[in-house]
Amino acid sequence: MGIFDGLPISRDKSYLREELSRIDESWAAARFDSLPHVVHILTSKDREGDVQILKEQSDIIEEVVDEVVHAYHGGFNKAIQNYSQILRLFSESAQDIGVLKVDLAEAKNLLGARNKQLHQLWYRSVTLRHIISLLDQIEGIAKVPGRIEKLIAEKQFYAAVQLHVQSSLMLEREGLQTVGALQDVRSELTKLRGVLFYKVLEDLHSHLYNKGEYSSVVSSINEIDDAMPTTTAFAFSMNNSQPLSRRTRLLKGDNQLGTYGAGDRFYRPSSVDGGSSFDGHDEDGAMDVQDDATSDGYTTMRVNGGDTVSRDGKIVSRQIPTWLSDSTPDEFVEAMRKSDAPLHVKYLQTMIECLCMLGKVAAAGAIISQRLRPTIHEIISTKIKAQADHVNSSRPGIGQAASTMLTGLHYLKGRLESHQLPKQKRQNGITLAGTLLAVSPVSPVMSPSGTAQTAAKELLDSILDTVVRIFENHIIVGELLELKSSQQVDLNTPKVMAADINWNPDSDASHDTGGYTLGFSLTVLQSECQQLICEILRATPEAASADAAVQTARLANKAPSKDKRSEDGLTFAFRFTDATIPIPNQGADLIRQGWSRRGPNVLQEGYGTAAVLPEQGIYLAASVYRPVVQFTDKVASMLPEKFSQLGNDGLLTFVENFVKDHFLPTMFVDYRKGVQQAISSPAAFRPRAHAAASYTPSIEKGRPVLQGLLAIDLLAKEVLGWAQAMPKFAGDLINYVQTFLERTYERCRTSYMEAVLEKQSYMLIGRHDVENLMRLDPASACFRNSLDQGIRETSASDAENIEVEMELSDILLNLRPIKQENLIRDDNKLILLASLSDSLEYVAESIERLGKSSMKDQDQLEEKRSQKPLHHYRTSSAPPKDLASFAEEYRKLSIDCLKVLRIEMQLETIFHMQEMTSREYLDDQDAEEPDDFVISLTSQITRRDEEMAPFVAGEKRNYIFGGICSIAANAFMKALVDIKSINLFGVQQICRNSIALEQALAAISSIDNEAIQLRLDRVRTYYELLNMPFEALLAFIAEHEHLFISAEYTNLLKVQVPGREIPSDAEDRVAEVFPR
């Protein structure tokens, strides 16, 4: 019976539930029908039993009812009592209301009689309350000057400005304007306005140049070394806003700060715009700074607590900066709390807001403009002085007093001693450093890799990095001042101004900012950097381009113009001796205030770079170029879009013009003089007098390269070193190198012609047939590494090689008789040709390496440009003729020298051996010594080999002297035709001659002794056949028909040999041996 489940039955009567469950559900039906139960009992066999069961169920139900009544009895009683109470209270209230109505009616009658007196009392009470309020305000205002001074002392400038503005507005209220006791307070507040202005401006100035407590450099001092932070400016909410910078656009959205009031859309002095995306260092929050902002405008921070997480999952500080801790909460303070900008950006924003609330935006801009140049000059000078003190203190053995009195000459001497080129002492007593020092227009310190270049680059990198940091702050302050100048409110005559400002990017904004603009600040910064560079380069005012003077005059004297792009553009004024501050006409109000166009305390002295740099001069332009390029790219990436198309490479343009108009011409003249000196010196093309005993391929170990060519190689490397430092001008510098190489080549050609002019060997190598045969000669394999020489690469057969040698020998032997005046008899000229050949080969190899290196650098530069195009696109002029072609010309001349030497030695051999044809070999005794002409030839070969050995490599010596054996063997064979008669001793004499020649050639270490022996053994075998009888000779021919040709065998029969009988048909019988 589910309907009885909710009955309140106690646990001790739980059996009642079970009993109830046994009762049929039909008893509990809504419409109970008793007839079935009556019929059931009447028809039942056990009527008494069924009746008894019904009684028991009736008892159970009664008992359940009793339990339920008992359980609800107390509640019923309480409800009855509460109802009785309610009835009683209603009755009493009705009685009290009746009495109250009676009392109110009586009070109405009484008050109506005294209405006028009550009104007078109420008005008096209101007047007294107003008087008390005014007295409280007067008492509070009287304490304001002291409170403001206290806040100023605690550097709570925003709170002080808030209090000053509120107090000034309060004094303008009706009722307080006529209070005479407040005149002193008004005077104090007026003075404090000026004090506040100068205090805020001074603190802004310190932070503008990263000298303040919250500057970016100071806040990151405990972070990742001294890496330059990427700062971002902040966005402003306006209807038609000016184009904002890259770092400004990052902060659109969450970091926008309200410029207007909550509902009236009118400007309120306490509200301010701002926001940024850089993180700072908070004293309370122990915030850690990450130097670089992320691409979407958010940065990473680590905080101890109280911060939130930005949309990209990075922690963002939500703490009130310490300098706003005493400020009254307003829109600006709330914006600063929510902003995720770095501390230095927040602080700069706070200072600009203070100036805006004080109504001093234009005055602040004017003072910042006036102090910009001397401040930058002082910062650069101080940095250089600190670096000089560090350098002097780090040098051992020099005290403080001595280091301050150290002159530039002594300092330069020390740098030269410690940073000289490596002294690579060569075996002949000459150093590379000495060679370069003798011809180079610059000292080792000023060379492309010298210490002066390194020091200048490091110095300029450091200073330009500092300038970039400062310019970042100027971008922030400049954009803020331009925005606030359009919202300036004169606090002395308070009035509301519309907040919807229609901003025109070309509007004349410098008037409202006192002449201060981003273009002006960038101009001054670059001008100071340009003056520093001029001091480093020792440049005179005439060294600057003509554009500089024009731009300076335009900045200083231009008339008002509607073309604001020409005025706000990044015009670049250079300053050498004139310290005039170029203040545009927009800042004419400063002139009216009595300010001079020449800034006070303008520094006319230099920067003191001589104390840091080992040497100064025009050649430091190479180390200046790359830092200026990097500086220009950084500035271009930071500039707002408003200035992106107005030109921002004034400093780079100056450096490039200086390099193009002054440095490159000066370098060309200086190095041309060095080249001329190197190649015109008497010792330039004079072989070393005390060369090493053997050849060494290493220049450091004594390779005897001619002094002139060695000097040219070093000069070319040095000039290409300048090209690597200035990639844009690499084409011009390579052209210089090509000009120097061309002049040197002409001088080498002249020296070569002086040695070979009108000599037979020179004329022979110019013949087309001889040239082709020499190219096919297997000995020319040593030239296969040469370019475009056409050397046969495929290995030819021995028969082809012998045929080439025989053809060349026949051409040379047909020149007999060789006259002595057609030969180079001066050994010094031969040594010069050998040394010139090796030196030309050395220069050619060096040129090839330099050409490949320059091409590789150019390819890398082009690849870098294609991957990451810069704001400034710079292309290097392509050289019309590459260095490889010069290397080829040098190598060709080197090979010509070797060819002349090879032909000369072969002609010398023919000249000596042609005496064989003019004598008879009918000696009467055994030969003990070779012939005089052989002795002369062998001694000449030995002497020339010893003299040339230090100047040419082994394979080149093999080429020079390797042709002697083949021409001598051929001469021996062909001389037999001209010998009239010969006997046994004559044959021995000729064999003795061949042995002597073999010994002389075998003494040359680079020549193949086995090949020499085979060739001359063949000669001796040929002449020994003269000692054989005809029949024995015939048998030898039959067995060795291929050892000699038919004509050579026939020549053996024509020579008269005493005691040998030759039949009349001898030639026919010999001819029968050879196949037809």
UniProtKB/TrEMBL annotation:
Entries under Pfam families matching the protein: Sec8_N
The Exocyst complex component Sec8 N-terminal domain, residue ranges: 16-151
Keyword match Transport: yes
GO biological process, one term: protein targeting to membrane
Disordered: annotated span: 272-310, 853-879
Annotated Acidic residues bias: 285-294
Sequence ranges of Basic and acidic residues compositional bias: 853-866
GO CC terms of this entry: exocyst
UniProt-listed InterPro entries: Sec8/EXOC4, Sec8_exocyst_N
PANTHER family to which the protein is assigned, alphabetical: EXOCYST COMPLEX COMPONENT 4
Role summary: Component of the exocyst complex involved in the docking of exocytic vesicles with fusion sites on the plasma membrane.
Protein name: Exocyst complex component Sec8
